[in-house]
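Why MFS family permease? Reviewers of the renewal asked for a concrete example.
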Amino acid sequence: MSQTITDAAGRQRRSMAGAFVGTAIEWYDFYIFGTAAALVFGHVFYPGAAPGAALMASFATFWVGFLARPIGGMIFGHFGDKLGRKNVLVITLLMMGAATTMIGLLPGYAQIGALAPALLIVLRALQGIAVGGEWGGAVLMATENASEKKKGLAGAWVQQGSPAGSILATSMFMLVGLLPDEDFLSWGWRIPFLLSAVLVIVGLIIRIKVEESADFEAAKAANTVVKAPIAEVFRVAPNIVFLGIVASIMGISLAYFTNTFMLSWTTGSLGIERQTMLNVLLGMAVLQFIWQPIAALIAEKIGATKVMILGLLLAVIMVVPFFLAIVSANPVNIAITLYITTIGGTAYYALLANALAAAFPANIRYTGVSLAYQLCSSLIGGATPLVAQWILNSSNGSPWGVAAFYGAMLIATIVGVAGLSRAAARSSLKAVAQPVAADH
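Here is what the prediction returned.
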């Protein structure tokens, strides 16, 4: 008996480690693109455009990755639900690493003309397809191998990949940002992308050692694996997909609002030094990394939904102070309000993964979770920097249109979380009731 418990605990630790490391690498790749979109790509790939237009083009390229994410969710979700989680996650990690490394080697507009931004868009789409399949599988690998009590913490460790990737990405750009502007724009920005090749090798060594998901093995043994998971998701759980999309809005939008749009805004028209804002964002990522596991432990005591909604309400309260701090162009004010907002927003984000996983049946869970989260990223989250920049341009630099947009996303997310929680509870009751009915 004690050996069985030890084996289960070891499996849980390996699954959490494999999910965390692989996801951190994938998010590192995704974050360095967002940072480069804010600081570099307008100069390197769209040099002939006016500054505002070049930035919009850069953000539109950034959005391409999000448009491709549902494709990755459908492709890899299909195979993950039919063939298992582990091998699919090895493929997504390799794909992301290859695409990111090639971006680091891509000539700019000055070398190959319009082919440069075209190839950047293609590689960005490959990044999107990879991360579209990665996130859902990593969530399931961690949570499905965890004990019932620790599923929330396991899901939170997957979410730790986001701040870990952000810390690494921001740190790398801080280092290369020390170069003179000419060197930074010509070759320095490429170094973080080329580092991805090394990180992927490390991630693969760890991930290959992880066992297959226990829930998938149980579904396979019970012969409940479905032939067409996508069709089955929309047949049995279309409402959960919709609620999952709404509940995921700030889980995707928050990071790209701060690390891409706000970074561009503050270092551009507001005139704050690039290194100063990268320091502020690094502090935010460190705070997120420390706080998320604490939020998961609090959720074990008072309930995940309560922690998620209270965190989002704190972020709503901070909207006006946060935007007043931004327009003050005072880095200290920005850091204080951003960090308070981060405590609220990431308490919700830490628990989002398990909230989505709990809402779908195991035999369609990879596809369901991936579709909900990645459709949100495509339709709403990935467009956040582009929409926010358009609102800012349209209002001649006034922050309040952007603030209203930001607040509306927070309120919509609260509604989605509440609805998803009720849907998950009904799904759980139905799953318990079915065997009872069969006994009669």
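The mean pLDDT is 85. This is the kind of structural detail the renewal will allow us to pursue systematically.
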